[in-house]
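A quick aside before the break. I want you to see a complete sequence-to-structure record at least once, exactly as it would be stored in a machine-readable document. Don't worry about memorizing anything.
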Amino acid sequence: MAYQIDNAIVKKDRTGKLTLIDPEGHFQDEDALIAIKSDDLITIQLLINSILNNDFKSWRELGVIPDSEPIKSLLPRLGYSRDDIAKLLKEF
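That is the input. The structure line, written in tokens, reads:
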């Protein structure tokens, strides 16, 4: 079971003007939006999918995670290999 986060692209031109690129119309009626770097969005989706598929023993064993550690480091810390991450990517 894969979990998908609705997303669109926010493009910034040279003058600083932001344009919403939302071909599927997920955000046409929204008054406020947030922007997340695309690699962080993919990592968040992978983490959600790993939570849904994982026994929580691995999560409990992580212990305290330093604030300075990037979110991308969580999957390897949870024991996911490159092949495991590739399989999770194929789910969505």
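Two observations worth writing down. The two ends are 9 Å apart (CA to CA). The beta strands are 9-12, 18-21. We'll return to this after the break.
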